[in-house]
Amino acid sequence: MLKYITLFTVLLFVLNGCQSAKEVDYSFFVAGHTYGSLNEKKPGLHPPFVAEFEKLNRHETLKFGVLTGDLIHFPDKAPYWEKAFEDIGRLNCEVHIVPGNHEVADRTFFRKYIDRNYYAFTENQDLFVVLDGNEDGWNIEGEQLAFLENTLEKQADSVHRIFLFVHQLIWWKEATVFAGCQPNSLMSKSDTLHFHDKILPLLQRSLKPVYLFAGDVGAYEERCSVFHHKLKNVTLLASGMGNYETDNYLLVDILKNGDVKINLVALNCDRGFGCMGDIEDY
Length: 282
Hints:
Layout: H1 2-15, E1 24-31, H2 47-50, H3 53-57, E2 62-67, H4 78-88, E3 94-97, H5 107-113, E4 119-123, E5 126-130, H6 142-155, E6 162-165, H7 195-205, E7 210-214, E8 226-231, E9 234-239, E10 248-255, E11 260-266
Parallel strand pairs: 1-2, 2-3, 5-6, 6-7, 7-9
Antiparallel strand pairs: 1-10, 4-5, 8-9, 10-11
């Protein structure tokens, strides 16, 4: 009997990240570049990621997921949208979608399947903000910047933590510490990015823990598929899939003691957790 109790305990441990379910308030996943391989060109989400859905559907504390862009390989072809959303429908939780450069390439299908390109919501006194890096060449400008400023002004004081999601690595800079994580694509990038001058000071002003997730990595084995860097209260993160060697997604546990545990989940090894090390290793 003890043997089966131990096995059940281990199973719960795996399904709930590296934390006991009793320690976790709620969880969510973040997955980038989920159409996967550049070469296969098959409709639907990346097969190793879809294979995780059964596990995610059994996850006790999972509230929702966020796909951080590029879930459609060919945005002008209806079967690619239909199969991607058929796959998404196999998840039991709500799924939020961040627009990637692939999705916005065909605005007709984009408007049919994704009704908002930036918005905010709350969960358990945490603030979540979906952003669109496509509108102004990877910069958050104009009405979207005003939306972000107003949202933070109205809600930052009343929430515990702030989570933001964007497709592009909007902090990326050549010849800096950020250059080591080469994005999948530099498509539509402005010559000058304003993140460090405009957005980062805005996020640091809140004094709350801020986590900014991007998803345009992971397509190339020789480039990065994981990124982690902390700037005072702001943690920058990127995660993605598609090269079949370092495919991964992030499972975020909000612990009851107030801590945030970001679990790096590898898709192409038996162990999953721990296979690629910890997010802080990157």
